[in-house]
Amino acid sequence: MADPRSTNGADDHAPLSAYPAARPDMSSIRTLRPQDYNEVLYVGHFYRKGQPVVMDLTGLSDADAKPLVDFAAGLVFGRQGDMDRIAHKVFLLVPPGVVING
């Protein structure tokens, strides 16, 4: 009988996720304009549901926008998605499984 704690198996290198993969919701793209770091949680909420998010930071100073960009970059990296700058201080967060051409 094989030891259930054994690490000698075909699935040893399968990626693990603490969150189930969200099925991308392409019915709409959510545009959010957070005004401070507390509001960036809404970006995470919709993105984790599999919805593309446009994060518009044009109303913020560079110093105020930086932590929000850092949060979004970590969110996208952790979920294996993508983040594109589409204009000055405007970013598109693309969930995994969604391809944006252009």
Automatic annotation (TrEMBL):
Cell division protein that is part of the divisome complex and is recruited early to the Z-ring. Probably stimulates Z-ring formation, perhaps through the cross-linking of FtsZ protofilaments. Its function overlaps with FtsA. InterPro entries: Cell_div_SepF, Cell_div_SepF/SepF-rel, SepF-like_sf. This is Cell division protein SepF. Transmembrane segments: none annotated. Residues 1-21 are annotated as: Disordered. The keyword Cell cycle applies. GO terms for biological process: division septum assembly. It comes from the Bacteria. Keywords: Cell cycle, Cell division, Septation.
